[in-house]
Amino acid sequence: GAGVSQSPSNKVTEKGKDVELRCDPISGHTALYWYRQRLGQGLEFLIYFQGNSAPDKSGLPSDRFSAERTGESVSTLTIQRTQQEDSAVYLCASSPSPGLAVTYEQYFGPGTRLTVT
Amino acid sequence: GQNIDQPTEMTATEGAIVQINCTYQTSGFNGLFWYQQHAGEAPTFLSYNVLDGLEEKGRFSSFLSRSKGYSYLLLKELQMKDSASYLCAVREGNYGQNFVFGPGTRLSVLP
What we know:
The complex is a heterodimer of chains A (117) and B (111).
Chain A: E1 5-7, E2 10-13, E3 19-24, E4 31-37, E5 43-50, E6 53-56, E7 65-69, E8 75-79, E9 88-95, E10 107-108, E11 112-116
Parallel strand pairs in A: 2-11
Antiparallel strand pairs in A: 1-3, 3-8, 4-5, 4-9, 5-6, 7-8, 9-10, 9-11
Chain B: E1 3-5, E2 9-13, E3 18-25, E4 32-37, E5 44-49, E6 53-57, E7 60-65, E8 70-75, E9 84-92, E10 98-101, E11 105-110
Parallel strand pairs in B: 2-11
Antiparallel strand pairs in B: 1-3, 3-8, 4-5, 4-9, 6-7, 7-8, 9-10, 9-11
């Protein structure tokens, strides 16, 4: 399809295990974002990629969280030693090249619902 | 610091008009976006404002006042399918790479 895809759609894991979440952005989109959304709450920014570099990692909540991106394509968000507080929907979004005069919006994937038991 | 405020919940009647307000205080400003998010689904883009004034798009309009740090989303001729959360987001940064989202307003449209 032409949209942003994420996998898995649902993940249930035990506390203390590591998880890896995957995002496939829209082809040609250079910017990629990860957000976390807890139940009934707004979007919490985690990290932003421009190409395969991450100029803004300010939102990562702890050193258990890391992310990488291969070129201008797939990105993975890894959470090590998961905690119950990590339970949330993790949303990925992509957008075209940033530019001051460009009205570019983010296109969101369907999200990965993570449940830590 | 960054702060975006929206009402938590609103209720309106089918066929009516509703205005959802958003106030923001951010370290930079390079545009304001409104997104719609149905329960259990990803947000989808509704509108964008970077200059002061009103942008109209069918039943939806969005207004921006940069001097007041204020925006609103206006929904006309409400339909049941408009029941959703509406997220206000500000794009910051010199190159506009950082988006800050508000908490969202949950709108319920009643028959």
